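Comment thread on ticket #2218

A.B. wrote:
> Attaching the input chain for the structure job we discussed in standup.
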Amino acid sequence: MHTFLIMVFIILLADFYKTEVEVKLYKLENCQSAKNLTIMFKFENLITTNNKMLMNYTSYVKEDVTNPISIVVYSKKCLFKDNLDTCEDMPVLQYNRFCENVKKPNILLKEIIYKTTPFIDCPIRKGTYKTVNATFDINALLAYQTKTYFWVTRSEIIEKSTKKLLFCLFTKAQVIFK
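C.D. wrote:
> Ran it. Output below, let me know if you need it in another format.
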């Protein structure tokens, strides 16, 4: 019986990941309070195809970032775009090993790091970084939803020792099942 249930689960999961989705981006911008932060972001474009997002953007680093950093993502999953009362807080995602993983990036960072020029290294040096055709596999996000949701996120880069906010990005998007 357990084997049968496992087989059914695998078949359903495989079918689920064949689902094609589109990402509709409503807002992707530096947070309102981010006027004087160390790292600023300029989004250029996003294309969704075959459950992959292809992204192009430029990052501006105003000064060297020499201390260890933490990347934190706060997100809400909402039923309706225009009614934030329908939102549910999702678990906070915190990534504390960015600099340790730059040399051997994990699957989530690999595309961003290798598609950015000049190469992102630690410490992060002052300058302009251009990311061209970085691909993000949307299938990783599909485990969090079974229907179309509207997502509101705030992504931050924080200097770990001083808790100084270095970067803040606000996003409103929708993952739409086709």
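A.B. wrote:
> Thanks. Noting for the ticket: The domain at 21-177 is CATH 2.70.220.10 (Ganglioside M2 Activator Protein; Chain: A,).
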